[in-house]
Amino acid sequence: MALTHSIIAAAGTSLILTTANPLHLALAIAGSQLPDLDTSTSTIGQILFPISNWIENRFPHRSVTHSLIATLAIAFLSAPLYFYFDWRTWLCLPLGHLLSCFSDVFTKQGVQFFWPHPAWCISVSNPNRRLETGKSGEYWVLIIAVFTLVAAINLSGTGGPTALVGSSLGLRTNATETYQKNAASHHIYAQVSGTFASDSSSSDGKYFIVAGEGNEFVLANKLGVFKTGANIISSRLTAEVGKPASSSVQTLQFDEEEFAVAPVQNALIFLTGTLTVDEPQSIKIPTNPKQLEIAKLTGTQLNLSYCPLEIAIKLLSGQYIAGSLEAKIFSPKPEL
Hints:
This protein is of the alpha+beta class. It has helices spanning 2-17, 22-33, 43-47, 49-56, 68-77, 79-84, 87-104, 136-156, 160-169, 172-182, 309-316, and strands at residues 186-196, 205-213, 216-221, 224-227, 232-244, 246-258, 268-277, 295-298, 301-308, 320-331. A five-stranded antiparallel sheet has the order 4-3-2-1-5. Strands 6-10-7-9-8 form a five-stranded antiparallel sheet. The longest helix is centred in the middle third of the chain and has 21 residues, at 136-156. It is elongated. The two termini are 50 Å apart.
C-alpha cells in the first residue's frame, strides 16, 4: 500500500542519513510512490494518469519503474537538489524509491529489480510466506515500520545509531562529533567520570561544555571552569544535547579606558584575551588548583582564559585598561 511504502521509506531514510528533517522525509516519501507509477490504479498513478497510463500499456507491473535503472534515473533527475541544498537532500528521493522497490521484493509477485533482465526478485521461495497487499501480513509490517520511524527520529536527535553506541562506550571521538555538530544551535553538556589532576579526587558529574579544543573540552559548573586533559583526567566522557540555544563571539576593544561592558540579559559570558591594566597591585587573582587558570597577572599584563564575566568584573572594576577581549556568549543562560 502507498502508506506502507511511505512509512518504510521515511524510517529507512531517517536511519540511514540520521535525519529528522521534514524536507528529507517528505522527499523520501515522494520517492517511495514513484515505483507505482506503472499502474493507473495506484495513488501516484491516478495523480499522474497520462504518464502512468503510458507506462502501464508498455511494461508489466513492477518491472521498469521498480528497477535499479529507475533509481539511477531519479538520482540523475534530482541532481538540482544537490546544488540547491546538499547531498543529503539530493539522496532522499532516490533512496525513498530504492527502499520502496526493495520492500516489494517481499510480496508474492516480487520485482524486476535488474530490469531489463527478465528475472523476478522474490524474497522467499514459498509463496505462502510472501506478503499480500492489504492483508494482515502487510499491516504487521506497517506497525513495525511506524515504530522504527519513531525510533529513527529520536535517534537522529542523538546523532544516530553510531553516536548512540559511541556514547554508551564513552568514546571521546563521539563526544567531539556531537559537540561540533550541535554546539551552534544547542547547549551541550558533558557527563564526566574521572579525577582532578591536582589531588586525584573524583571529578564525576555533569558539566556545561564552554568550548572544544581538539579532543579536549573546556567545561564549567557551579564550582568553576575546568579543562579536560589538564585539570580533569577523564576515564569516560559523553556529550549530550540540551535545550536549543545560540552561541556567539564578540570582540571587545579597550584603549586606556575604564573597564565597562553592557549587560546581556539571561546569558552566560566567558572572556578570553590580554589586557594592560593601570593598577595591577589591586587585582586579586582567585586561585584553585583544581580549576583552569582563568586569570594570570604578569607585571601590568592580565591574561584571561574563559573567565566568567562576573569574575572579570570583580577583577577589573575601577581599572583603566588597553587591549582586546573575546566574549563568548551563550543565550539563554545554561543550567550549571
